[in-house]
């Protein structure tokens, strides 16, 4: 049994915060619930929430927090809307493709609830700006879901004593928790260090079911609202794991690690660090810097000159069905170790995938086995389509 | 005694896409090494070169982290469920290996 942790919520000053006639009508369904009521709605109105990333998790989050009447919502993002975002990032629409995500989000949120103040930060969150941006908010929600930002947000929240509502998604699986060092464990108590780059798949390559960020994002929104209202039991000290295929929620206990480098008894991290360096450089970058990369133009030239080049596609069969570079052979990355003796070390071999990440792992793997004439196609088949053959189907 | 081990989504390619597997063992160390024997490709994802459990992989018995039990020596009872919980991140530039 998990022991009950009383939700003390965040400290808010509701002095002088009143609701207008329109707001009484708008929030009527909150006001008639004793757990929220007028006092709770005034808390929501005096509260501020910072959402980092206006993407898959950020979309439902921002919508529900705006609808609920959170007084001030900050959003950090620097990206533009791409058509491939629309499968899950429901705050953006087809006509927004090419627009700034912040502009697109602000428009939808103000249309939903003009009482909410939307503040936007068109920047990447960095060690230089994080403390300055985060300090003015009561609750922080990381909707970006990558390791450098996750450690950055965690550390900044620990240093500023802010609750950090965590969510993460992968294919059909999601996780959520609340990291709040004042009351319980932080992310570093759970994982002191991130996995080295290359050991974990990404959304771009691993894929994600579009509904999943909707479920995890709304759980994050709910936790943020509970922290503001100071009601119920939050996910502080608990990791919620959701399996969408089995439709099962599981729960694991998280404990504060006395040896945690930032919130433990003798912390060694006292200020923000360089999180990109902490999370390591990718195999792709390594190959670029050591000359084991080939551009689409160079590859095209070699093929046209009739040079002896073996072209290996390391994607999955269902991706190979959509598009492929003519003359390539499919060996999915996971099958490479067992097929490696079919490859001729003396010939030049070029590997590609969708964007260049998986093929970089393949090239690294073969280099470790002693292959010297192996190259990674920079930017993968996406770059090939863009630079060489735009008639090919893209996904 | 066979013990049920829950496999997280990112590691399922190395367990023939099974979301849980049964392995023999009395302690966590025995169970994890038998798991790595059964699915050799899983090994490098669980253990570093010096054979220690990687520090971005946590192991739970039921809902408790083994770091707060007896670590690798934690004894398993009939009906216990072991879960492997690696750090995951969706929107990352990072990609999978074998």
Automatic annotation (TrEMBL), chain A:
<dbReference type="InterPro" id="IPR001763">
    <property type="entry name" value="Rhodanese-like_dom"/>
</dbReference>
<feature type="domain" description="Rhodanese">
    <location>
        <begin position="305"/>
        <end position="393"/>
    </location>
</feature>
<keyword id="KW-0548">Nucleotidyltransferase</keyword>
<keyword id="KW-0547">Nucleotide-binding</keyword>
<dbReference type="GO" id="GO:0004792">
    <property type="term" value="F:thiosulfate-cyanide sulfurtransferase activity"/>
</dbReference>
<dbReference type="GO" id="GO:0008641">
    <property type="term" value="F:ubiquitin-like modifier activating enzyme activity"/>
</dbReference>
<dbReference type="GO" id="GO:0005829">
    <property type="term" value="C:cytosol"/>
</dbReference>
<keyword id="KW-0067">ATP-binding</keyword>
<comment type="function">
    <text>Catalyzes the adenylation by ATP of the carboxyl group of the C-terminal glycine of sulfur carrier protein MoaD.</text>
</comment>
<protein>
    <recommendedName>
        <fullName>Molybdopterin-synthase adenylyltransferase</fullName>
        <ecNumber>2.7.7.80</ecNumber>
    </recommendedName>
</protein>
<dbReference type="InterPro" id="IPR045886">
    <property type="entry name" value="ThiF/MoeB/HesA"/>
</dbReference>
<dbReference type="GO" id="GO:0061605">
    <property type="term" value="F:molybdopterin-synthase adenylyltransferase activity"/>
</dbReference>
<dbReference type="InterPro" id="IPR036873">
    <property type="entry name" value="Rhodanese-like_dom_sf"/>
</dbReference>
<keyword id="KW-0808">Transferase</keyword>
<dbReference type="InterPro" id="IPR000594">
    <property type="entry name" value="ThiF_NAD_FAD-bd"/>
</dbReference>
<dbReference type="Pfam" id="PF00899">
    <property type="entry name" value="ThiF"/>
</dbReference>
<dbReference type="Pfam" id="PF00581">
    <property type="entry name" value="Rhodanese"/>
</dbReference>
<comment type="similarity">
    <text>Belongs to the HesA/MoeB/ThiF family.</text>
</comment>
<dbReference type="GO" id="GO:0008146">
    <property type="term" value="F:sulfotransferase activity"/>
</dbReference>
<dbReference type="InterPro" id="IPR035985">
    <property type="entry name" value="Ubiquitin-activating_enz"/>
</dbReference>
<dbReference type="GO" id="GO:0005524">
    <property type="term" value="F:ATP binding"/>
</dbReference>
<comment type="subunit">
    <text>Homodimer. Forms a stable heterotetrameric complex of 2 MoeB and 2 MoaD during adenylation of MoaD.</text>
</comment>
UniProtKB/TrEMBL annotation, chain B:
<dbReference type="InterPro" id="IPR016155">
    <property type="entry name" value="Mopterin_synth/thiamin_S_b"/>
</dbReference>
<dbReference type="InterPro" id="IPR003749">
    <property type="entry name" value="ThiS/MoaD-like"/>
</dbReference>
<dbReference type="InterPro" id="IPR052045">
    <property type="entry name" value="Sulfur_Carrier/Prot_Modifier"/>
</dbReference>
<dbReference type="Pfam" id="PF02597">
    <property type="entry name" value="ThiS"/>
</dbReference>
<dbReference type="InterPro" id="IPR012675">
    <property type="entry name" value="Beta-grasp_dom_sf"/>
</dbReference>
<dbReference type="InterPro" id="IPR054834">
    <property type="entry name" value="SAMP1_3"/>
</dbReference>
<dbReference type="InterPro" id="IPR010038">
    <property type="entry name" value="MoaD_arc-typ"/>
</dbReference>
<protein>
    <submittedName>
        <fullName>Molybdopterin synthase subunit MoaD</fullName>
    </submittedName>
</protein>
């Amino acid at each position: 049994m998990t022991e009950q942790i009383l939700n003390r919520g965040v400290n808010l000053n509701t002095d002088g915060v009143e609701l207008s006639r329109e707001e009484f009508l708008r929030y009527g369904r909150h006001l008639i619930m004793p757990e929220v009521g007028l006092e709770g709605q005034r808390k929501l109105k005096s509260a501020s929430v910072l959402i980092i990333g206006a993407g898959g998790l950020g979309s439902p989050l921002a919508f529900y927090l705006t609808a609920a009447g959170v007084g001030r919502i900050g959003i950090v993002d620097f990206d533009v809307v791409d058509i491939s975002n629309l499968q899950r990032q429901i705050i953006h629409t087809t006509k927004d493709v090419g627009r700034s995500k912040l502009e697109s989000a602000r428009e939808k949120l103000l249309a939903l609830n003009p009482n909410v103040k939307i503040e936007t930060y068109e920047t990447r969150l960095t060690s230089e700006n994080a403390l300055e941006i985060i300090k003015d908010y009561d609750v922080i929600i990381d909707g970006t879901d990558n390791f450098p930002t996750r450690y950055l947000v965690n550390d900044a929240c620990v240093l500023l004593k802010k609750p950090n509502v965590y969510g993460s998604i992968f294919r059909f699986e999601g996780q959520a928790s609340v990291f709040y060092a004042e009351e319980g464990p932080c992310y570093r108590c759970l994982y002191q260090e991130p996995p080295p780059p290359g050991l974990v798949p990404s959304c771009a390559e691993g894929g994600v079911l579009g509904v999943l960020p909707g479920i995890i994002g709304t759980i994050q929104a709910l936790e943020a609202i509970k922290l503001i209202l100071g009601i119920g039991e939050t996910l502080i000290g608990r990791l919620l794991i959701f399996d969408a295929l089995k439709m099962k929620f599981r729960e694991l206990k998280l404990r504060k690690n006395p040896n945690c480098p930032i919130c433990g008894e003798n912390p060694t991290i006292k200020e923000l660090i360089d999180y990109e360096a902490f999370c390591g450089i990718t195999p792709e970058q390594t190959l670029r810097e050591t000359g084991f990369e080939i551009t689409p133009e160079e590859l095209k030239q070699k093929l046209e000159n009739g040079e002896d080049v073996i072209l290996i596609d390391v994607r999955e069969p269902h991706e190979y069905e959509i598009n492929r570079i003519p003359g390539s052979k499919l060996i999915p990355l996971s099958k490479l170790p067992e097929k490696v003796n079919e490859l001729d070390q003396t010939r030049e071999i070029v590997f590609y995938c969708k964007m260049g990440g998986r093929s970089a792992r393949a090239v690294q793997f073969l280099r470790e086995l002693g292959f010297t004439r192996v190259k990674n196609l920079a930017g993968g088949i996406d770059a090939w389509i863009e630079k060489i053959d735009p008639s090919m189907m893209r996904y | 005694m066979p013990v049920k081990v829950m496999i997280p989504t990112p590691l399922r390619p190395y367990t023939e896409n099974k979301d849980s597997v049964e392995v023999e063992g009395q302690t966590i160390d025995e169970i994890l090494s038998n798991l790595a024997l059964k699915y050799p490709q899983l090994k490098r994802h669980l253990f570093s070169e010096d054979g220690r459990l990687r520090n971005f992989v946590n192991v739970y018995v039921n809902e408790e982290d083994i770091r707060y039990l007896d670590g690798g020596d934690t004894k398993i009872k009939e009906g216990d469920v072991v879960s492997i919980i690696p750090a995951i991140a969706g929107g990352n530039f990072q990609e999978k290996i074998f």
